[in-house]
Amino acid sequence: MQKENILITDRNIKARNAGGAASGARARTWLQMTMRHLIAKSTTRRIINIAYNHIPHYAHQKLYEHFAKIFRRDHVEIQSGFWCVKFCESLIRVPLNQAGVWLAWDLGLAILGNDSEVKRTYRWFLSLDLGPQRFLDVGSNFGTHSVIFLVHHIPTISVEPNPSCKPFFDVLCAANAVTHELHQVALGTDLGSAELFFPSMEEWLGTIEPGQIASLQQTSSLVRISVLCISLDVLFQGRDEAIDLIKLDTEGSELGILKGASEVVRKHRPIIIFESLHGDARKLLFDHLRREEYSIVRLPLSNIAPYSLTSAEFLGQSSTNFAAIHRKRLALWPSPFRPV
Predict the structure, then answer these.
(1) Would 56 be classed as within a structural domain?
(2) 39, 45 in Cβ contact below 8 A?
(3) What is the CATH number of the domain that holds 282?
(4) Which residues lie closer than 8 Å to 105 by C-beta, 6 or more apart?
(5) Is 340 a member of any domain?
(6) Considering its fold, how many domains does the chain have in total?
(7) Would you say residue 339 lies in a domain?
(8) Using an 8 Å Cβ cutoff, are 232 and 261 in contact?
(9) Can you give the residue range of the structural domain that contains 42?
(10) List of E strands, the chain
(11) DSSP run (H or E) holding 14
(12) ∠ CA(66), CA(67), CA(69), 5° rounding?
């Protein structure tokens, strides 16, 4: 009898859990549908937008996770206008219209809500009396990182091989009265061509790295295009501008890019914000940066001097976004952009 009671109790718990999960899913669906209709109307959008710019960073992250994809299904008529994102003391205007709302809304929420630790680091950089003098955005995609620095009048160089990203970047820059410098190439160690793969409507997952391509193919049908590939050192031949901040987000090809950027890195010793996916490449990346006298640290960065990760600690990190900082810049903390 006792055994039967235990089994009945266990079934009841599972049933309640299943019912709770279903109820939660229905609530999320209702909230997403409601948000979709509120954002579609310009008057309610403006009210939500004002509130959005006064909430903390973790709320931006939650909103991105739950509401970024709401215009990918169920057609809704939308009144054209802007979604405005306050970043430090500047406002970034993201145009919303019927044709491209699924993408523009996603990217508008991504500016603050995606890679939150990176955006908090940018905020700190921009708050410094002496901040970055020039930003190099490798894997700029639709330009949501580049535009942050452009609206703060920091010279920015964007590198993105996927031509389908340029139209939105053009519109985003026009809406904010800034001009981009975009190089539509892939970066690596040598001059040549490469095959870029990405899922349709997920261009930010574009990669030329074979291991990542194989991983994407397991879950998505991929678009494939041929792109020009050059090294960063070649791209910057004959240019004298100092580069003190680089962002690398290239879905697995970061090590090859750094190997092809040895002259730029040794000359300018930039702070490098980079993505490192889990796998064997992490150890190779750590060893390469250590040879260049760089330490790898966690994000976000702040006035507190960052802790340098050991190889074992870096390999064991669950996060994927980090900073690499030259030992001479670490010695300048908390003023890492002073000349070195």
Answers:
(1) yes
(2) yes
(3) 3.40.50.150
(4) 39, 68, 70, 71, 83, 96
(5) no
(6) 2
(7) no
(8) yes
(9) 2-113
(10) 81-87, 90-96, 135-138, 156-159, 182-183, 186-187, 192-199, 222-230, 245-248, 271-275, 294-298, 321-326
(11) helix 2-40
(12) 110
Is residue 102 a part of any domain in this protein?
A: yes
> Are 126 and 19 in a shared domain?
no
Contact residues for 121 (Cβ-Cβ < 8 A; gap 6+): 273, 299, 300, 301, 323
Residues 91 and 207 in one domain: no
pLDDT (tens place) for every residue of the chain, 340 residues total: 454 554 455 555 454 555 556 777 889 899 999 999 999 999 999 999 999 999 999 999 999 999 999 999 878 899 999 999 999 989 999 999 999 999 999 999 999 999 999 999 999 999 999 999 999 999 999 999 999 999 999 999 999 999 999 999 999 999 999 999 999 999 999 889 999 999 988 898 899 888 888 888 988 899 999 999 999 999 999 998 999 999 999 988 999 999 999 999 999 999 999 999 887 789 999 999 999 999 999 999 999 999 999 999 999 999 999 999 999 999 999 999 999 9
Q: Are residues 210 and 263 in the same domain?
A: yes
| Interstrand relation of 192-199 and 222-230 (parallel, antiparallel or unpaired) | antiparallel
141 shares its domain with 85:
no
Q: Identify the helix (H) or strand (E) that includes residue 163.
A: none
Residues 86 and 226 in one domain: no
